[in-house]
Amino acid sequence: MQSTSNESKILLAIQAIKNDASLSIRAAAKIYSVHYTTLGQRLKGRPSRRDTMANSRKLTDLEEESLIRHILDLYSRGFPPRMSSVEEMANLLLANRGMGKVGKNWTSTFVKRHEEVKTKYSRNIVQEDIYNFDETGFLMGVIALGMVVTSSEKNGRAKLA
Looking at per-residue confidence, does 34 or 60 come out higher? Predict the structure, then answer.
């Protein structure tokens, strides 16, 4: 990955070439101590490595943001999604674009990449401890132990922006 000082040298060289039409790419690269092919590519509009999205990222930034908001919304309602549910949500977003599926470790790297969410084990409530129903009823299959994705907030519910 390029250092910020090298990046600033490239930007200075680009500015010098734009200001002085007689200055060649090789001459500017030599003056500013940067590689001439990198400078040429950047002049043609190629973004720096730092500004590009990694090839391993299948979802766009907007899709990932909407997925985070949906996870936090489910968590705020008391139903944090399981890791497999997050993977299914991502696959649905990709299916809408006609893309393939996410990889087997995608969900865990997604959670590591976003500080708004984290994983926890949900509580294992045994059948004998369930009593005194209220108006909300009982949702079958929700009580089993499993890894869920929750808000990274320490106390209280998730904050939806």
Answer: 34
DSSP secondary-structure letter at 24? -
Backbone φ, ψ for residue 151 (5° rounding): -70, 150
- Averaged pLDDT of the chain: 80
Shared domain for 47 and 65, answered yes or no, is no
82: three-class secondary structure by DSSP: strand
pLDDT at 161: 45
Do 32 and 65 fall into the same domain? no
pLDDT over threshold 80, residue 31: yes
pLDDT top residue among 54 and 141: 54
Spatial neighbors of 101 by CB under 8 A, at least 6 apart, are: 91, 94
Q: Report how far residue 104's alpha carbon sits from residue 90's, in angstroms, rounded to the nearest whole number.
A: 12
**Selection from 93, 96, 26, 30 nearest residue 62 by Cα:** 93
The residues facing 117 across adjacent strands are: 151
Tokens 């549910």 identify what position?
A: 85
pLDDT at position 135? 53
Do 46 and 96 reside in the same domain of the chain? no
Nearest to residue 139, comparing CAs of 122, 151, 155, 156?
Answer: 122
